[in-house]
Amino acid sequence: MKHPIEPFRIYILLFIFLLISAEIIWSWKKQKAAYELKETLANMTIFMGFQFSKYLFAGYQLSTLSFFAEHSFATLPHTLIIFLLTFFVTDFIYYWFHRASHLWKPLWAFHQVHHSAMRMNLTAAYRLNWFSAIVSPLFFVPAALLGLPADFIVLTYALNLVYQFFLHTEVVGKLGVVEKVLDTPSSHRVHHGSNPMYIDKNFGGVLIIWDRLFGTYQPETEKVQYGLTTGFLSYNPFKLVLQGFVDYFKTIKLNKVE
Q1: Which spans in the chain are helix H?
Q2: Between 109 and 65, where is the model more confident?
Q3: For residue 126, what is the DSSP state?
Q4: What is the pLDDT of residue 244?
Q5: Where are the transmembrane segments (predicted)?
Q6: What are phi and psi of 73, to 5 degrees?
Q7: Residues 25-72: tens digit of each pLDDT
Q8: CA–CA gap between residue 185 and residue 31 (Å, rounded)
């Protein structure tokens, strides 16, 4: 089965690079220092590796969800209502997947690279682990078992990630009443903060209502300090992607020694 977002990939990538160029110009004119050359190059290298990994794992993702869809409790049709329902369910699952990725160390090993960026800009959005596609489909198995079409699940998850690209910026300030329903740049800046009050907050993908419902919402009230709580990690993209796993297995080894 062809990846449902494949026909639009080139247009999405062109749009992304245009926005990044515009943000670089904004940062330069406003003297915001939102970009640093070495970090930007690391972000772009990780991004290219992530794009390659999507080709490698697209078949695995679809086949995993299709398998469970074939054993679902129902078979729901490809309609607009079902698509919107899938988008809503996918966003709900994403919230818990994202929250678990912060609280459970094996998943944090995959997710750490995304929080290692020391600056908030659009290139940091795709500072994503090249191997995350191995675990992410497993969280969406319940949606497939409910009878939601596998291609709808993959497409809505992809759209969820596309939306989050626009959240990684300092160009946009607070958005008033919108902050009560949708995840916004302000809410997501909080999520990337290493400030004590910002740790493990605002896990939402598209909707922020899950954070409000489950007690993880935090508004942006003080200047955000970006990066890991341990500070700067590296500019080496391979180290950035793999360090989470290295740290995790070191922890396991130390626990065995003790």
Answers
A1: 9-30, 37-70, 80-103, 105-115, 136-139, 141-145, 150-165, 185-191, 209-213, 237-257
A2: 109
A3: G
A4: 95
A5: 12-28, 40-58, 78-97, 128-148
A6: -75, -20
A7: 999 998 888 999 999 999 999 999 998 888 888 788 888 888 888 888
A8: 19
Please check whether residue 112 is in contact with residue 228, taking contact to mean a CB–CB distance below 8 angstroms: yes
What the block records as the tokens of 22 is: 């515009």
The 8-class DSSP code of residue 82 comes to H
Closest CA to 4 of 65, 73, 45: 65
Q: Are 107 and 100 in contact (CB under 8 A)?
A: yes
pLDDT at 199: 97
What tokens does 24 get?
């670089």
- Total-model pTM: 0.91
C-alpha to C-alpha distance for 115 and 93, rounded to whole angstroms: 20
Task: Count CB neighbours of 148 within 10 A.
Answer: 26
Find where tokens 């943000």 sit: 23
- CB-facing half-sphere around the CA of 231: CA atoms within 13 A: 0
Please tell me the distance from the alpha carbon of residue 101 to that of residue 110, in angstroms, as a whole number: 8
